[in-house]
Design brief:
The protein is an alpha+beta fold. It is built from 5 helices and 13 strands. The strands form 2 sheets. It has an 8-stranded mixed beta sheet. A 5-stranded antiparallel beta sheet has the order 1-2-3-4-5, with no helix packed on it.
């Protein structure tokens, strides 16, 4: 829920979300640019009044977007976004700038798709760019550089079925099969702290597996287990 109003009405457009809040008579429209930041810079427009506010993680859940989005103010948006991965099953490594000059870099996305492929079948699936952004923001949140250790990225339906036969902890409709989930740890960051930072982002699902030493992250609806 938005902390500054009892109720809010949410709509979406191609580039932004629009939240209407009841202030006195009529409605106040808040336009939230879907730009890369965890601080939402908004402009409240009410008749002739213009008030600029900064809202820390203002109810991404309340916004009820079709897919959770990481939202950054233009002034805080980095010029580049980098990620480094080390895949524990294949030994492959990558250190890449996957976003620069205001757009994603196709060639780098393809390299990430390849590294995060189903290592059991070598099948490749496009990884959700929102998932990459989530990983980038999470790393800024915990203030730790270095490579994420990858336990599982994309998972083919065949592999998912096989894993379900071996464990009851594998979801039948796992978001791994859509390239929207990843299992990771980040050396130098305690797993419980990584989990807590991910929960604070409220940008998708967060699973905690301390015995196996990894955190599950996905871009589905915000939830945790």
């Amino acid at each position: 829920m938005c902390t500054f109003a009892k109720t809010c009405t949410v709509g979406t457009s191609r580039n932004r979300s629009v939240i209407k809040l009841p202030f006195g008579q009529g409605h106040t429209t808040i336009k939230i640019d879907l730009i890369f930041s965890r601080i939402i810079t908004i402009m409240i427009i009410k008749r002739r009044d213009f008030l600029k506010l900064a809202i820390h993680r203002c109810a991404l859940g309340a916004a009820a977007l079709s897919a959770p989005s990481l939202v950054f103010a233009k002034s805080n948006s980095p010029a580049e976004r980098q990620l480094a991965f080390y895949h524990l099953h294949t030994g492959e490594k990558i250190n890449t700038t996957y976003w620069a000059d205001g757009d994603y870099i196709t060639q780098e996305l393809e390299s990430l798709n390849h590294l995060l492929r189903d290592h059991r079948t070598d099948e490749i699936q496009a990884i959700d760019k929102n998932l990459l952004d989530l990983l980038y923001v999470l790393q800024q949140q915990v203030d730790k550089s270095g490579a994420y250790h990858i336990i599982s990225g994309y998972r083919s339906p065949k592999t998912n079925t096989k894993l379900r036969q071996q464990s009851n902890g594998v979801a039948k409709r796992s978001l791994h099969m859509q390239g929207k989930a990843i299992d990771v740890r980040l050396p130098g960051v305690q797993l419980k702290h990584l989990r807590q930072a991910a929960l604070q982002l409220r940008a998708g699902g967060v699973g905690y597996y301390p015995k196996s030493n990894f955190v599950h992250l996905d871009t589905g609806r915000p939830r945790f287990w």
